[in-house]
């Protein structure tokens, strides 16, 4: 550019200018950049994690409860079986699983989420990433795990469980073990899926069959190890 085509200021000057309006910070194009940055950070942090299992369950589980102990045990056994443990990095079942993995000397991953009432990553997370967007974080739970173990929980847990089931049903992910711990908690839901939802023709019997329900941490880990061995054996060389 020459003469009248030369801008009055350089790109660097405009970049460093302190008197700009800041409305753009609150616009969708800028959010897209932040979303992209979250994917970049998540992928960059987790790319070399190795085999991992995502563990879900209620954020409200109390330290010292039987289910909290179950969360610790399942994570410990997953570490013994060679898996890293991924959680939402928060309290309750997430903290229990991170504690079990951390104390067993395994890789304890926490994918935190910005919430109005969130207190940050729990003390047992060794490798942590904080997300603003639930959907970015949920991509990480699936992408970097070889299966899900799900303890009893509420809406958040159900959301994470049903996302995996939908991805498997629509073949967005193939061969993805999902193990639920706690028969008395989960069986009414399985029963409803296998009768009402199935009889209305809204799911297939094979969708329900995908869910494995167990009562102990050892059974859950055995189910994960067994299904992943079958998946590995069926993979082309
Ligand atoms: C409600 C409480 C804490 C909220 N803190 C959370 N931190 C991180 N992740 C969370 C939190 N709450 C829900 N999640 C996600 O959903 C799942 C648990 O949800 P549920 O409704 O409690 O079953 C969990 O796996 C997280 O990924 C209590 O202080």
UniProtKB/TrEMBL annotation:
The keyword Hydrolase applies. It is an enzyme of class 3 (hydrolase). Pfam families: Lysine_decarbox (PF03641). Keywords: Cytokinin biosynthesis, Hydrolase. GO terms for cellular component: cytosol. GO terms for biological process: cytokinin biosynthetic process. It catalyses: N(6)-(dimethylallyl)adenosine 5'-phosphate + H2O = N(6)-dimethylallyladenine + D-ribose 5-phosphate; 9-ribosyl-trans-zeatin 5'-phosphate + H2O = trans-zeatin + D-ribose 5-phosphate. GO terms for molecular function: hydrolase activity. Its EC number is 3.2.2.n1. PANTHER family: CYTOKININ RIBOSIDE 5'-MONOPHOSPHATE PHOSPHORIBOHYDROLASE. Belongs to the LOG family. NCBIfam families: Rossman fold protein, TIGR00730 family. This is Cytokinin riboside 5'-monophosphate phosphoribohydrolase.
């Amino acid at each position: 550019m020459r003469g009248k085509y030369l801008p009055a200021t350089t790109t660097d000057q405009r970049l460093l200018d302190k008197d700009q309006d800041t409305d753009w910070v609150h616009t969708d194009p800028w959010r897209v950049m932040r979303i992209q940055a979250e994917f970049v950070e998540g992928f960059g942090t987790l790319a070399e994690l190795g085999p991992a299992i995502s563990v879900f369950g209620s954020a409200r589980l109390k330290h010292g409860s039987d289910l909290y102990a179950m969360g610790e045990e399942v994570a410990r056994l997953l570490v013994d079986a060679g898996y890293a443990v991924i959680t939402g990095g928060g309290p309750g079942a997430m903290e229990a699983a991170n504690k079990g993995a951390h104390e067993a000397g395994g890789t304890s991953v926490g994918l935190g989420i910005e919430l109005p009432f969130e207190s940050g990553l729990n003390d047992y997370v060794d490798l942590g990433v904080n997300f603003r967007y639930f959907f970015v974080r949920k991509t990480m739970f699936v992408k970097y795990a070889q299966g899900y173990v799900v303890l009893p929980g509420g809406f958040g847990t159900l959301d994470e469980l049903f996302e995996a089931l939908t991805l498997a049903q629509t073949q967005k992910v193939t061969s993805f073990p999902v193990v639920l711990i706690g028969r008395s908690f989960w069986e009414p839901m399985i029963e409803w899926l296998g009768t009402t939802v199935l009889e209305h023709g809204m799911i297939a019997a094979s969708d329900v069959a995908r869910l494995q329900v167990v009562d102990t941490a050892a059974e859950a880990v055995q189910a994960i190890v067994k299904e992943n061995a079958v998946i590995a054996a069926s993979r082309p060389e």
